[in-house]
Amino acid sequence: MYERLSGAIVYRDHESVTVDIHGVGYHVYCANPFAYEINESATVNVFIYTHIIQDAIKLFGFKSREERVLFSRLLQVSGIGPKGALAVLAEGNSKVVIQAIEEENETMLTKFPGIGKKTARQMILDLKGKLDFVMDEEQLMATGPLFAKESDALDEAMDALRALGYGEREIKKAEKALQGNDLTADEYVRQALRLFVER
Fold this sequence. Notes:
Belongs to the RuvA family. Its main location: cytoplasm. Keywords: ATP-binding, Cytoplasm, DNA damage, DNA recombination, DNA repair, DNA-binding, Helicase, Hydrolase, Nucleotide-binding. InterPro entries: DNA_helicase_Holl-junc_RuvA_I, Hlx-hairpin-Hlx_DNA-bd_motif, NA-bd_OB-fold, RuvA, RuvA_2-like, RuvA_C, RuvA_C_sf. It comes from Geomicrobium sediminis. By secondary structure, this protein is α+β, with helices and mostly antiparallel strands. It folds into three domains: 59 residues, CATH 2.40.50.140; 70 residues, 5' to 3' exonuclease, C-terminal subdomain (DNA polymerase, domain 1); 65 residues, no CATH class. A five-stranded mixed beta barrel has the order 1-2-3-5-4. Helix 1 crosses helix 2 and helix 8 packs across helix 9. The two termini are 25 Å apart.
């Protein structure tokens, strides 16, 4: 599983960019590809979400870890797939999306492409009060880098378990049991799988 790609943007179109790393080009779908400049001599960081379906593995890229986590949360809402989640993030401001959810502003949410009233309401029901991971700079400094690192790695591991087909009930139990450990995403996944076997 990829946490991030660090390389040069060598190509982009209306839905994706190509990140070149030592001569290997990674095709990455983005909410706003034109936020990245084509520059073969500059290295950029693209945070990655790996989406696995039966006949394909697709990489989705984000400018920040917070954007990536918001994307993964949106995918958990019934009626929202990767294309719809990217359309929401194309707004370019995660806090606008979160504020609309927290304030139950269905009118604002239905302005995003593909989001109707039913889906907007489902977003509010599923996500309200669960998106406090997007913090402003002062809050991030106060929390410290270790907390942010642990939260990101644990969130990524839980997303990987979802991609592997595990249910939310099992995942929530594993997440609760593993909180407070300073592990990488891969280590969290391995520990969770051990917990599943033991039970």
